[in-house]
Structures
1.
Amino acid sequence: MKLATLCYVNNGSHTLMLNRIKRKDDLHYGKWNGLGGKFEPGETPEECVIREVYEESGLKIKYPKLRGIITFPSFDFEEDWYVFVFTAKHYEGELKKECNEGVLKWIPNSVLDKLELWDGDKIFMEWLNGDKFFSAKFIYEDGKFKTYNVIFY
């Protein structure tokens, strides 16, 4: 089992996205993702997301808002992933010019769904506009989206 965070940093009209194109062996290669990553020992979800966003972007997010939890059974063909999904509107610092994971870019919110995203991301990113907390399971088989279920609170 792997624990991770995912954060969509928003400046009002744009969302910071990461195009994962730096490592050919990256499971997410060629896809656009929010920022985030795996927990380090002893971290809370909030500590992890703040650290990961800073490491990847150079931005220090403040008041990250936990929007939901997603379970991805056997997502990397070995282990289940549990991902804590956040949004952040408050941050300080300057955006890095280089990121080890890929290319960072502020994307207009109106075209986010036109990016090369995981199919499941297109679904749950819509939920980030609402005010309900969600718990969801997204099932992929051989890298292809199959189905999902969700509960809103």
Note: Residues 2 and 66 are 18 Å apart (CA to CA).
2.
Amino acid sequence: MNDRNDSAEDTLDREILVSRIFDAPRELVWEAWTNPKHVERWWGPVGFTTTTEERDFKVGGIWKHVMRGPDGQEYPNKSVFTEIVKYQRIVYSHSGGRKGDPEIQFVSTWTFVDVGGKTRLTIRQLFKSAEERNHVVKNYGAIEGGKQTLERLSAYLKQMENHK
């Protein structure tokens, strides 16, 4: 599935979009995303922790991690990086979900745009079907989870700025 070949009108019912502007330079936001020691500190919704089992940040590289919810539920995840454009874009094919549930698959595109020294970060998750997208929104709270993840990133970026 190549999301670049799909027009926006063809994919609206299959995608989740979450975006936020951070009061931080694009290079710092990129560092928070690409450095495993940073990403585990903010990845996931409020109350979640993330443990990286494997991470090879290059095209074709794999990122295996387990997210744990506040209730102790585990969410094993595997992503394969398909495109990396430094300071601009990260694309990966994702599979994972709640332990014991059917696997969820989507293509995730993260874009990093400089807006006058601040950074607009946009997450686009493209699913194979509207049903899969709706399942993730209803059963996993994916839209709110995305917003919470970016809120956690915002707080973490402030910590990074203060420790420079």
Note: Residues 56 and 62 are 5 Å apart (CA to CA).
